[in-house]
């Protein structure tokens, strides 16, 4: 048995940091505030210092003490870093959001991966209110850090859920180009498309050198001004869903900027408004979909590429009573299949829910031409009588009854992870599509029986945020 005395070791190293009588490193941070340290400890704990304090280092003072200057790191932040390096402790409860963000940047620069991950998680979990109040500052900071995708995604998700305060803020016109592009290309950005267009124009005017606040009056613009704005907005205009803009708003807000839009985009939009002809080359998926409405919150429960394509992973991750949606992508096809279950998933049992339905899309770009299959209610009642399954105007879904009063704990359906009326179901690693199952009003597939290993399966828990 190994005896460990980490507490004493930590105390001794802490004293060594405070006194630092035999230090051989001086680190100047901020406006020349000095910290004393020991090269062996810095080398052992930080790849950055290991590289910096190499044999080729030539910034040595007369007393053989090495001097390192880091003016971009605030003294408060560096004090936290040294404590982490020496004794492995970090306490951020009394630090401001600005200091913690600075610590994130400094830990990234000094290659302190463990600390970097901790700070990123701490900001998301403990400083989310501050993050949402300072989104532009945070985004401008974290988009420069390649390893900070988790915090980047958190900020973008927060904006997409409630974008209007962000788009109307005073800081929005100064938003960096990559960040705006990442926002506008997202299908879950819950904003009216005409509002997105208005603020894109304001952003573009602010970003164009010959325009800006000194030349924002469009009545005074010449052709060169419009051409300059066109160049600024070139990569963003194709991200606007013009078909989601009403004809009145298109006439009043978009048409005046006709010379800024690419000719093909403008002509296809006009043809849509005049003849209801869908664009052939420029249409993007609408941000407004029948299912993924802003009234609902969707929580990812299971993703096969992340959690494993097997019965055990599916059952473990999806064991909830909340309504959920299943989405399946087929490898050999662009088609996407899905089903909605209002009861939730419970391993091993059958029940019926009249609100269930299954659907399919031609591909992930076409969300307007959805094929929906609804239940045929009378056959369900007869099926329940013959099999003894419980009937409550419900379609067949897997569900377990857990209370003592329930007498319908069916275990003969354990092999099916999800099952919509023996028409669309998962068994092992395979997904099955069945024709003429008798449960739905139209056929879900043209083939008698299709069996395939999916490219991806995702399951989302659905919550109505107004309930």
UniProtKB/TrEMBL annotation:
Stretches assigned to the BTB domain: 23-94
Pfam families: BACK, BTB, TLD
Ranges of residues in domain TLDc: 264-463
InterPro entries for this protein: BACK, BTB-POZ/Galectin-3-binding, BTB/POZ_dom, SKP1/BTB/POZ_sf, TLDc_dom
Entries under SUPFAM superfamilies matching the protein: POZ domain
Protein name from the UniProt record: 4512_t:CDS:1
